[in-house]
Design brief:
With 265 residues, the chain is α/β, with parallel strands linked by helices. It is built from 8 helices and 9 strands. The strands form 2 sheets. The chain has a 6-stranded mixed beta sheet with strand order 3-2-1-4-5-6. It has a 3-stranded antiparallel beta sheet with strand order 7-8-9, sandwiched between helices. GO terms for molecular function: hydroxymethylpyrimidine kinase activity; phosphomethylpyrimidine kinase activity. InterPro entries: HMP/HMP-P_kinase_dom, PM/HMP-P_kinase-1, Ribokinase-like. One of its GO terms (cellular component) is cytosol.
């Protein structure tokens, strides 16, 4: 038995990536690094590696509801992180789950495309996330390609996407790094008109699981009681370090190193 303070619990509703680079494993590792306890509920199973997604299957909603209800009945959930949902039905399932967690921060990572380009849901999933989930979210964390899907602006700039999406969500973090710019610009927008740009050095290569790492870290920082602007800065800084130290276990993208090499020693 330990007498140390209890770690805050983050409920993760995400897909399983068998390569271990993204999805629930990314959530678990990033939350452990923040000093949080991850409670993972599987929303979907995927066939993917570090190169791309080949197939996926969304779980039956009753299974997802049963997982989440068991966690909520037993553990004091301090924040919720959303990853891959994959279907409109799963969007509605998440809303039902959140009814049991009034006031709990919700970080929505709208996973619509894998890093290798493969689709992780049909077009109507993006519409359902925008119309139904974003109003419940504390913050959404799309990359620019995902923001364009959500905003239905195929060539939209970050500012144009934010203008379209902020009526639906109070805070929006649109991450950069998908172009050829020498610096990465991550832009935090709020409904009141505020915009805070976080610039970081662009790293070589491409990465599998960076979005999952960022969103779960942000959920962990909110669960720890950190204010949102500070939590965003903490999450961006931690995520950049995991990319700087990334490794390449397979033939495809690099995988963020979310835990130090001596974590279990």
């Amino acid at each position: 038995m330990t007498l140390e303070p209890q770690r805050p619990v983050v409920l993760c509703l995400s897909g399983h990536d068998p390569s271990g680079g993204a999805g629930l494993q990314a959530d678990i590792e990033a939350l452990l690094a923040q000093g949080c306890h991850a409670a993972p509920a599987v929303t979907a199973l995927t066939v993917q590696d570090t190169v791309d997604v080949r197939d996926f299957r969304v779980l039956d909603r009753e299974w997802v509801l049963a997982q989440a209800r068991a966690i909520i009945a037993d553990l004091p959930v301090a924040a919720v992180k959303l990853g891959m949902l994959g279907s409109v039905e799963m969007v509605e399932t998440v809303l039902e789950i959140m009814e049991a967690l009034p006031g709990v921060p919700l970080v929505c990572d709208p996973v619509l495309r894998a890093g290798g380009g493969g689709a992780l849901g049909k077009d109507e999933v993006g519409y359902a996330i925008r119309e139904r989930l974003l109003p419940r979210a504390t913050i959404a964390t799309p990359n620019l390609p995902e923001a364009r899907i959500l905003a239905e602006l195929p060539e939209g700039t970050p500012e144009q996407c934010a203008e379209r999406l902020l009526p639906f969500c109070a805070h929006l973090l649109i991450t950069g790094g998908h172009g050829e710019e020498h610096e990465v610009h991550n832009r935090l927008y709020d409904r009141a008109g505020g915009c805070e740009t976080h610039v970081c050095q662009r790293l070589p290569g491409s990465y599998h699981g960076s979005g999952c790492t960022l969103a779960s870290t942000l959920a962990g920082r909110l669960a720890l009681g950190e204010a949102l602007p500070s939590a965003v800065r903490s999450a961006l800084d931690y995520t950049w370090r995991t990319l700087r130290d990334a490794e390449r276990p397979g033939r495809g993208q690099y995988v963020p190193r979310r835990l130090p090499l001596d974590f279990c020693s």
